[in-house]
């Protein structure tokens, strides 16, 4: 970053990443956010920036919209809890990212829970 430019926190980088990539369905700026050797722990997605780009081609076909609920940053880790609404319904998702020293996405884990439309909850606490 040049003189006078503020360095974004990793949590701020994630907010911008979700807005630009996931909610605008645009992978043209991945080089700004993600290391070329990005390490993926979701077994259905290839490693690397190009593997992520190929995943997005399939994923964007489902017209996803992410509604961020909570972001937590601790050291080089950011946890994102969100609602993902797409053609397949609604999912409750928790993404975990590790950043490198240059505030670039270096590694990713996720947990996804599909919410059935006919779910009859045992409490009134809500999903989110």
Secondary-structure topology with pairs:
Layout: H1 10-23, H2 30-33, E1 34-40, H3 48-60, E2 65-74, E3 77-86, E4 89-99, E5 105-115
Parallel strand pairs: 1-5
Antiparallel strand pairs: 2-3, 3-4, 4-5
Keyphrases for this structure?
128 residues; alpha+beta; 5-stranded mixed β-sheet; 3 helices; 5 strands; 24% helix
Textual characterization of the structure:
This protein is an alpha+beta fold. The protein has helices spanning 10-23, 30-33, 48-60; strands spanning 34-40, 65-74, 77-86, 89-99, 105-115. The protein has a five-stranded mixed β-sheet. It is globular, with a radius of gyration of 15 Å. The mean pLDDT is 93.
Helix content: 10-25%
State the low-pLDDT regions, or none: none
Oligomerization state: single chain
Overall residue-averaged pLDDT value: 93
Number of helices: 3
Distance separating the two termini? 36 Å
- In terms of structural class, how would the helical and strand content be classed? alpha+beta
* Approximate shape: globular
Q: How large is the radius of gyration?
A: 15 Å
Task: Let me know the number of strands.
Answer: 5
Strand content: 35-45%
> What is the N-to-C succession of helices and strands?
HHEHEEEE
Largest sheet: 5 strands, mixed
The strands making up the biggest β-sheet line up spatially as 1-5-4-3-2
Quick synopsis:
The protein has helices spanning 10-23, 30-33, 48-60; strands at residues 34-40, 65-74, 77-86, 89-99, 105-115. The protein is an alpha+beta fold. The radius of gyration is 15 Å and the shape is globular.
